[in-house]
Write a structure and sequence with these properties.
Number of domains: 2
Radius of gyration: 20 Å
CATH class of the largest domain: Mainly Beta
Strand content: 35-45%
Order of helices and strands: EHEEHEHEEEEEEHEEEEEEEHH
CATH superfamily of the largest domain: Probable inorganic polyphosphate/atp-NAD kinase, domain 2
Distance between the termini: 21 Å
CATH architecture of the largest domain: Sandwich
Length: about 280
């Protein structure tokens, strides 16, 4: 039996009319359970419930991490790797969580600093990924990659993705990166459309510091994106330093949560091999 919750903050994407019906049901459930709830003051709650897609959870996660508040998601988006409670009959799953019956996962984040003329000019955290990308159509970026102060390679590409295990099923997956189990202590570094056939993704320990240096003669305007929500413009010669953040996100799941079932459902993986055992586990 884990902690019960008494003060709930609900987060939805601003002006998202598609969650109105779910929100009404959620408020009715919380009232029935005599649990106070508000649609604001996330930092003053003891649990954040996100109604929406993974993007909404990514936004709320930055607040949750800083205040050590657990978070759970009801999926009203597309894939829902993070907001994994289905909206059709969410009441039963959420009731169990609110009564203290849940699984807690600690998800790692990245913190990224932008260094210009030897000074940190900006920083941001990311639960999924940090992406170096070009602002110019059909133009590449020239940059160097260092890991733990060791030179790795000169890269000419459309960009670069630095992803956590959580982010390995996001943009990194589309770019051909590996899926990392959420509890794996690793960071993935992978190029976006590199101008060489030999450039491949690499996974390193999450104690590593990944540094990117834009070459001074860069002709393309480049930017850094953190979770696709925070964008920082760069200039030639800038350095980007990313490493594991010292705080983790407490992501809650129902007690029957199965990561590989999520992958099967979201990615359309076949269940024919071992189908008898699969049918047994899903029917229990």
């Amino acid at each position: 039996m884990s902690t019960k919750f008494n003060n709930i903050a609900i987060y939805t994407k601003p002006n998202d009319t598609g969650v109105a019906a779910i929100l009404q049901r959620l408020l009715a459930l919380l009232q029935q359970m005599n649990i106070s709830a508000s649609q604001g003051n996330l930092e003053r709650s003891d649990l954040i419930i996100v109604v929406g897609g993974d993007g909404s959870l990514l936004h709320a996660a930055r607040i949750a991490v800083e205040h050590n508040i657990p978070i759970v998601g009801i999926n009203k988006g597309r894939l829902g790797f993070l907001t994994d409670i289905a909206p059709d009959h969410f009441e039963s799953k959420l009731s169990e969580i609110l009564n203290g019956q849940y699984i807690t996962e600690q998800r790692s984040l990245l913190v990224t600093e932008i260094i210009r003329n030897n000074k940190i000019i900006n920083s941001a955290t990311a639960l999924n990924d940090v992406v170096l990308y070009t602002n110019a159509l059909a133009r590449m970026i020239d940059f160097e990659i260092y890991i733990n102060n060791e030179f790795v390679l000169d890269q000419r590409a459309d960009g670069l993705i630095i992803a956590t295990p959580t982010g390995s099923t996001a943009y990194a997956l589309s770019a051909g990166g590996p899926i990392l189990y959420p509890g794996l202590q690793a960071i993935t570094v992978l190029p976006i459309l590199p101008h060489t056939l030999s450039s491949r993704p690499i996974a390193v320990a999450d104690t590593s510091i990944i540094e990117i240096t834009l070459k001074p003669n860069n002709a393309s305007n480049a930017s850094i994106s953190c979770d696709g929500q925070i964008h920082i413009e760069l200039t030639p010669g800038d350095k980007i330093s990313s490493k594991k953040y010292h705080k983790t996100l407490q992501l809650l799941h129902p007690t029957d949560y199965d990561y590989f079932r999520i992958l099967r459902q979201k990615l359309g993986w076949s269940t024919q091999a071992g189908s008898e055992r699969y049918a047994t586990t899903t029917n229990n």
